[in-house]
Amino acid sequence: MRMHKKSHLEERLAACSDILKTADVTQKNMKISAGVPDFLPLFEIFKNCNPVHLEIGCGKGRFVCETAKLNPQTNYIAVEKISNVLIEALERAKAENIKNVYFLNCAAEVLPRYFGQDSVSRIYLNFSNPLPKEGYKKQRLTHPKFLNIYAGFLKSGGQIVQKTDDKDFYDFSLQSYLSCGYKIVETCEDLAAAPVEGDVETEHEKLFKERGKRIFRIVAEKP
Questions:
Q1: Are the CB atoms for 21 and 40 separated by under 8 Å?
Q2: In degrees to the nearest 10, what's the CA dihedral of 55, 56, 57, 61?
Q3: What's the structural domain count of the chain?
């Protein structure tokens, strides 16, 4: 079902331009676009040198906004390619005056354009689309294609923290991390039974738990 465009979307996005970078989409080939550096000026954005954590696929922003409030000494960049969804996260951060969150409106394929080597300390992948059909596996955000992209800007010892409600995607991701040389630091196959202190529940997570679904979690570390 096609998502209904939110009213006055362009004006609302413009009102949040101080905390938003929108990808240049004039180059339709994402591989070429990713190779043209336009690194985010992190110190200029945050006015400090605190560690940077990245959420890929932030949705409506509950996770990143609540996590940022709990961790004021960490800077957060939230990535979402659908501006119709991103606007809710942007307006939430503005309304709550959260200073350590910035937003990037782009696809994961072009992230190397915006992040230099060793610029990110942690990546969050919260309930990414599992894309269960075999023909779509290269589009999964834990496919080796993407793990190699992340490795270009994730620090040595940096972590990818993933949550999903899909057991097959969980198993696929474990194998992908290992095949790309990441170390599996933690796994959990029922997060409700073994909650992690400081881990913020996402919108999807709350819904899945209410339906009785198990939540799987992986922490993988770049060597």
A1: yes
A2: 20
A3: 1
DSSP letters spanning 59-112: TTSHHHHHHHHH-TTSEEEEE-S-HHHHHHHHHHHHHTT-TTEEEEES-GGGGG
Q: Where are the alpha helices (DSSP H) in 106-196?
A: 144-151, 167-179
- Amino acid at residue number 116: G
Say whether pLDDT at 2 is over 60.
Answer: no
Instruction: Check: CB of residue 164 under 8 Å from CB of residue 127.
Output: yes
Q: What is the pLDDT of residues 82-105, one digit of tens each?
A: 999 999 999 999 999 999 999 999
**C-alpha span between 143 and 149 (Å, rounded):** 10
27 assigned to some structural domain: no
Report yes or no on 32 lying in a domain. Answer: no
